[in-house]
Automatic annotation (TrEMBL):
Protein species of origin: Penicillium nalgiovense
Keyword Nucleotide-binding among UniProt keywords: no
GO molecular function term, any single one: phosphoric diester hydrolase activity
Superkingdom to which the source organism belongs: Eukaryota
Stated name of the protein: Phosphatidylinositol-specific phospholipase C X domain-containing protein
PANTHER family referenced in this protein's UniProt entry, alphabetically: PLC-LIKE PHOSPHODIESTERASE (PTHR13593:SF140), PTHR13593
Length: 451
């Protein structure tokens, strides 16, 4: 999913670094573990911002968390109310202005009951909270299967190095809730580039996250996950500034311990009520002592083989190396399901998305399909993957088939329209396309020989 898209001399160095960086931080944060959430018995009136909930921590401390301190902006115009009912488990209620109160997060309710009830003048975009499925509100973050876009920012038209056709805002509108991307340290700044910035430069990390922040403010009931590929193995301090500057800072979720096992995760309701709903993982060089919220991905999320060229998509555990089966079963995991083609051009060998087979790769069923892999992983591990990492998420055996697979894993119904306007970036890798590859490849070789 991150390197190696170009396998050159530096790969050996990268591999060496790979094994030296697998150790994870230990220790826990000072937050304590959330054991119960006590909420007012009576349904309070007032706006969402005024709502408070009492969180009881395992060390006996209680803290009152007011949504007001975390969220300000478009919500003020929306006349939303959010209350909770049950005493020891969170159930989120959202009332739309003028309409009746709508209950969400109660599994015995009709999910569709929540699609109405938002005031017409509200700038809040989504009317189906908890990542489009009210059923998820009471479920733990670790008990949900999400579609994850591989190399989410790489949407360059007519580039074989692109991985997606639609921009990040469209991805989020369509239901993607996990964004994976590769970062490069250039000129003292974190850029989003595919392999090198000469090959595909999608701008700075800060610009990209600023767009995501805008979306998250308009969609206050959604939890979004970021999986950062730290391609250059730079220190985590290089990431904190662009993340904070993007505006996401107050939404960042901080785990209660390291590592987070399956049962340690909060429910989506808890994350949404506390407005701590931006979840950050980084594959290498995370330091949770210095930045508890910038989580070491492989301490909490393992992966099946990455950058696969094998359409069999085995469900075997690959990264981190050496994880015991017992630990793997007690962690979240990601199914890498982006099929690659290996291009060999002289000394350059690179992997690019195999777009010609997307109708099979992203399909609900059939040989080499996402659906087949998800089923197989569920059989192997006793639970479905948490993340389904795909290229060109909007293609499949029908538009939106990747979301159908996630819905099947989640035991919910996918009935949304997919997908946003296409930018037309998808092109099959054909002989005609090879000249583009070749031109790009020559550029890369020049860059590489300068290393
Ligand atoms: C919150 O909203 C109010 C009213 O629009 C505004 O005056 C205030 O500056 C905002 N605060 C922040 C931190 O954005
Ligand atoms: C907010 O909702 C309440 C209760 O439904 C309603 O009485 C009030 O008029 C609404 N206010 C606005 C500004 O829409
Ligand atoms: C869920 O909502 C239904 C209908 O309002 C109610 O009868 C039921 O008791 C609720 N269940 C829980 C667990 O809150
Ligand atoms: C659930 O939806 C079905 C079909 O729309 C409807 O008949 C039923 O009354 C709904 N139940 C509740 C509790 O809203
Ligand atoms: C959620 O947990 C239940 C019970 O352990 C399990 O059956 C289900 O497969 C899980 N779903 C996901 C998506 O993790
Ligand atoms: C880094 O700076 C050099 C020199 O100014 C410039 O040519 C290059 O385009 C910059 N790189 C990026 C990714 O902006
Ligand atoms: C970013 O990473 C580079 C390379 O590891 C390092 O030299 C630099 O000090 C880092 N910058 C910050 C702000 O940590
Ligand atoms: C992680 O951060 C802590 C606290 O800032 C620091 O003492 C430690 O050296 C860092 N670890 C690494 C590997 O940089
Ligand atoms: C997928 O499932 C459908 C409906 O069950 C079936 O008609 C179709 O043949 C299957 N496709 C493949 C490739 O297995
Ligand atoms: C999906 O959407 C694109 C763009 O609108 C379209 O070209 C394609 O044929 C659609 N169908 C499938 C099966 O992906
Ligand atoms: C996943 O496997 C469990 C049994 O291990 C089964 O109960 C469940 O239905 C499976 N989920 C799906 C979506 O097939
Ligand atoms: C899936 O949902 C249905 C209806 O909502 C329920 O009856 C069934 O038990 C669920 N299956 C699992 C494996 O949770």
């Amino acid at each position: 999913m991150r390197w190696p898209t170009v396998l050159l001399g530096f790969l050996a160095v990268a591999l060496a670094q790979d094994s030296s960086t697998e150790s994870s931080q230990s220790g826990t944060t000072t937050d304590g573990t959330v054991v119960s959430v006590t909420t007012p018995v009576a349904i309070p009136s007032g706006t969402y911002q005024e709502f408070t909930t009492t969180i009881t921590l395992s060390d006996g401390d209680s803290s009152v968390i007011a949504s007001t301190t975390h969220y300000n902006g478009t919500m003020t115009a929306s006349n939303q109310t959010a209350v909770t009912t049950t005493s020891d488990s969170l159930t989120l209620l959202v009332g739309g202005g003028g309409g009746g109160t709508t209950v969400i997060g109660n599994n015995s309710m009709n999910a569709t009951a929540t699609t109405t009830g938002t005031a017409t003048n509200t700038p809040v975009v989504n009317t189906r909270p908890c990542n489009n499925y009210p059923e998820f509100c009471t479920r733990k973050y670790s008990n949900i299967t999400m579609v994850a876009t591989h190399n989410s920012p790489f949407i360059r038209k007519n580039s074989v190095a692109a991985n997606q056709a639609l921009d990040v805002t469209t991805q989020l509108n369509d239901g993607v809730r996990t964004l994976q991307f590769q970062t490069h340290y250039v000129n003292g700044t974190m850029y989003l580039c595919h392999t090198t910035c000469q090959l595909l430069d999608a701008g700075t990390l800060e610009e990209y996250l600023t767009d995501v922040n805008k979306w998250m403010r308009r969609n206050p009931y959604d939890v979004v996950t970021f999986i950062i590929g730290n391609f250059d193995y730079v220190s985590p301090e290089n990431f904190t500034t662009p993340i904070y500057n993007s505006g996401l800072k107050d939404l960042i979720y901080t785990p209660t311990k390291v590592p987070m096992a399956l049962n340690d995760w909060p429910t989506l309701s808890e994350m949404i009520l506390k407005q701590k709903r931006a979840v950050f993982f980084m594959d290498y060089q995370a330091n949770q002592t210095a930045h508890p919220w910038l989580m070491d991905q492989f301490s909490q999320v393992w992966e099946t083989p990455f950058s696969p060229t094998d359409p069999a998509f085995p469900c075997t555990q690959q990264r981190p190396p050496g994880l015991s089966k017992a630990d793997a079963k007690n962690r979240m995991y990601m199914a890498n399901h982006n099929l690659n083609l290996q291009l060999n051009l002289g000394s350059l060998s690179m992997l690019i998305p195999n777009t010609a087979q997307l109708d099979e790769t992203n399909a609900v069923n059939g040989s080499g399909s996402l659906g087949e892999m998800a089923q197989e992983c569920n059989t192997t591990w006793g639970r479905p993957p948490n993340f389904l990492l795909v290229d060109y998420y909007n293609y499949g055996n029908f538009n939106g088939s990747v979301f159908e697979v996630a819905a099947q894993m989640n035991n919910v119904t996918y009935d949304r329209k997919c997908c946003g306007k296409t930018s037309g970036a998808l092109r099959e890798v054909s002989v005609a396309g090879m000249s583009t590859v070749l031109l790009v490849a020559v550029g890369v070789q020049m860059v590489m020989s300068a290393f």
